Amino acid sequence: MTDALSIIVVEPDRDRALQIVDSLRDAGENRIHVISEVTGLERRISEHQPDIVIVDLTNPTRDVIEELTIATSPLERPVAMFVDKSDENLSKAAIEAGVSAYVVDNLRPERLKPILSAAITRFNMFRRMRDELTETKRALEERKLIDRAKGLLMKARGISEDEAYGLLRKTAMDQGKKISDVAAALVTAADLLS
User: Fold this and answer.
1) Which residue intervals of the chain bear CATH 1.10.10.10?
2) Are 66 and 87 in contact (CB under 8 A)?
3) What is the pLDDT of residues 34-70, one digit of tens each?
4) What CATH class has 133-193?
């Protein structure tokens, strides 16, 4: 945590919130906003667009965890959740919802900085994995589309696979488009004509 972060702290208890804020200030020059009321949480978090959300719960329930994870958008930003007590089902629900750090046994100031750093690192790692998965799926869909377009060309023109691909590539270059775009147009046209 070397750069200044925009941090939202969700903590209904004023004394605990002040303790967290003091710990965060000791950890660096962060912009901190405390939200003490859980109602309307999603709107308030959206207004601030924080880098990370810290949620401190004394005794969470599954419903509270689900509501908080929806409100904190854990797939858009790291969320560190601190609880006094938990069970396996609650921690599993929080992690599956995308919470980056789920820490049992209260929020202790000396642990805050390394936990937040780990939460941010974990969030960034999972975001990269989600992005890579999305890109891989997109590439696979493009590959299927190109293969289908090659098959249409091979059948319609009686040419080899290499010639079909060459024709797709030449058409794409001539039109200043991607091969997948030309393939998509060909497949769409073939679907309309059949």
Assistant:
1) 133-193
2) no
3) 988 877 778 888 888 899 998 887 777 777 777 777 7
4) mainly alpha
The boundaries of every CATH 3.40.50.2300 domain in the chain are: 6-107
Residues forming a β-bridge with 35 = 10
Instruction: Give the architecture (CATH level 2) of 6-107.
Output: 3-Layer(aba) Sandwich (3.40)
Top-confidence range, 19-33, 63-77, 82-96, 126-140: 126-140
Question: What is the rounded distance in angstroms from the CA atom of residue 136 to the CA atom of residue 144?
Answer: 12
Q: Name the pTM for this structure.
A: 0.71
Q: From 125, 126, 117, select the one nearest 96 (Cα to Cα).
A: 126
Q: How far apart are the first and last CA of the chain?
A: 59
- Residue 180's contacts (CB-CB under 8 Å, 6 or more residues apart) are 142, 145, 146
Helix (H, G, I), strand (E, B) or coil at 81: strand
DSSP H helices in 80-108: 88-96
